[in-house]
Write a structure and sequence with these properties.
The two termini are 18 Å apart. Strands 3-4-2-5-1-6-7-8 form an 8-stranded mixed beta sheet, sandwiched between helices. With 249 residues, the chain is α/β, with parallel strands linked by helices. The chain is globular. Helix 1 packs across helix 11. The protein has a single domain, classed as Rossmann fold. The longest helix is centred in the middle third of the chain and has 16 residues. The protein contains 12 helices and 8 strands. Helix content is 39%, strand content 19%.
Length: 249
């Protein structure tokens, strides 16, 4: 059965899109069929992270009723499947983000997991993503302004009846960061991944690939692989991660 997961944040600049790609790539590496969807309709970046500048059919075209969503699925050279959004301002004209909940089910059966990269903030686009998914992962920095926005995102997700599976803390490692315990007390939600501040994340953007593929031994890649394994019930050990995965299969 296909599971729809939204990756959202209360504010921009917290590595939400990078986290979406890294998690999708790790799940793909573990043998899961994954489709990653750019649900950020006004400022889409998912395709740009993979070097996809333009495609014949994008998510905006689907939302306008011109094509089915299966016609907007593309395969990156890494093997990861992606549904990019349109980059042009013209693409925004006549788009209703709340139709996302009507078109996403068209991917049911095509993948084990559909991961939707939401827009930052609590506007219509992010609400549309929350309406369309089953589970939610919230991305935040371990600092008060970001966590305050994350708390609002969590409460709104829960009010819509969505299961918040946990919080991903990104760009960690500063001595001034709030501790994981403090974050969990503030958000009343489990922190399921702690991603270190890692230059490999920026380098992966230059290489136009997910950090899991471009820098598989980096600290950030290992953290995302551990998260992916936990989400699908696998035990992951970097030294023998593939062997563990193969034995489980």
């Amino acid at each position: 059965m296909t599971k729809f997961v939204g990756i959202v944040s209360g504010k921009g600049g917290v590595a939400k899109t990078s986290s979406t790609l890294a998690l999708g790539a790790a799940l793909h590496q573990f043998g899961r069929e994954v489709v990653v969807v750019d649900g950020n309709l006004s400022t889409p970046n998912l395709g740009l992270h993979l070097g996809i500048m333009s495609v014949p059919i994008n998510l905006h075209d689907v939302l306008k009723g011109r094509y089915s969503i299966t016609e907007a699925v593309y395969r990156h050279s890494s093997g990861l499947k992606i549904v990019p959004a349109g980059l042009s301002l013209r693409d925004l004209s006549g788009v209703n983000p709340h139709k996302l909940k009507e078109v996403l089910p068209g991917l049911r059966g095509l993948a084990d997991l559909v991961i939707v990269d939401g827009a930052a903030g609590l506007g219509n686009e992010n609400l549309a993503v929350l309406e369309a998914v089953d589970d939610v992962l919230v991305v935040s920095h371990p600092e008060i302004p970001s966590l305050t926005d994350a708390l609002k995102t969590i409460k709104i997700s829960e009010s819509l009846g969505k299961r918040v599976k946990g919080v991903i803390l990104t760009k960690t490692g500063n001595s001034l960061d709030l501790s994981v315990d403090a974050v969990e007390r503030l958000l009343e939600t489990e922190v399921i991944a702690v991603i270190p501040d890692d230059k490999a994340m920026r380098e992966s953007l230059v290489k136009k690939n997910a950090v899991v593929f471009s820098h598989p031994k980096s600290k950030s890649a290992i953290a995302y692989k551990k998260l992916a394994a936990e989400l699908i019930g696998l035990r992951y050990n970097e030294k023998r991660g593939f062997i563990d995965w193969l034995l489980r299969r």
